[in-house]
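User: Could you check the structure of this?
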Amino acid sequence: MAGDDTQLAELLARWGQDGDAREALVGRLYAELRGMARSLLADDGGPTLQPTALVNEAVIRLLGPGNHSFDDRRHFMGAAARAMRQVLVDRLRQRLADKRDGGRRPLSLDHALDIAGADNFELLALDQGLTQLAAQDERAARIVELRYFAGLTLQQTAALLDLHPATVSADWAHARAWLQRHLSSAHE
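Assistant: Sure, the predicted structure tokens are below.
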């Protein structure tokens, strides 16, 4: 296992400079990335985006400027979750711009968190809220990204961030309350 970790670390470090490293890394983590995408799109309500397409678009974003290497697996998976979030939000913004639909109706945070791919304003408000939360509490925002956009459990999130599950649980509760206030004020 230690050899696998060392090889993974080398691939992560060479991400930005070596196409073979990128291909090998995505190949090793593809099933996990696809699982993240599948959980995000489970409640999409339509065939607008397939998990494979979401993974592909997220990987393209990871190849963009500023993504030259990753410190470790946690750093990569966090960046992948953020890239998937950006893909979903950008696609939603484009659909809304195409429709020019101004009808908004407020939803609870729980409902907004249950509909990742749905055509709604709540995903946009959630994205805006996460950006604001990250400015105040980066760790809480990362936990929301990993729980919501990557579909990780509390235990998986704790392991990935190298935190105690109780810390993740407390930060998750804080972030949900903060985001609920943000979503409520966005609809007033």
